[in-house]
Known about the structure:
single chain, alpha+beta, 4-stranded mixed sheet, 8 helices, 50% helix, 7% strand, globular
Amino acid sequence: MPDVRDPEQPGRLLTIERDALIPLLRSRADEDFALPVAACPGWSVRAVLAHCSAALTRVVEKRFEEGVFSPATNDRDIAERDDWTNARIVDELERGLFEVGPVIARADGKLDGLALGEWVHAGDVREAFGEPGAYGGAGLPDALALLARITRERGHVPLHADLDDQDEPLRLGESGGERPPGRFIGDGPTLVRLYTGRPLDGAPGFELAGVEAKELNIFG
Length: 220
């Protein structure tokens, strides 16, 4: 039986993130935007934010030319904002996070992964700032539910995750019976790190059996 998609979930996740992230960004000094982002080698906080704001603007404006969201297009979007102030990038990001939800809701799931990616990049920024709660916070339940559904729809490697703060295991991926599911025991933010190829430095201990970490990466 296919998963029932909640069309409001991606937008809800981004609204939660907007309310947490934008005040944090407005509180930081300009030099903090030059900090490197470990999860995105070669990119600064500013570059990550420019990429995120540009992607949201593209979706809101329905600009999906050939090669959209490719590395080359991402680099071009960032370069186009080279002469912007940090405040202008944050303004565009805030506007995109506010406006994109209904657009994603109407896209029949085709853009749900973008919402998850934007949320993960917010965690990348928190990590660069040394802020607590990277890949966690109030949006984590929606992010995990979205991650689980996306991995099942893509037929990703199966995994049962026993999370520290959830009573019921989370089922990710789908094997069609061809492969027994792997098993993860740990917390939600660490699971997000594994599925998005983020560094595990400083993450609490976890157990992973029946599957290799590299197989979980949905961006790999």
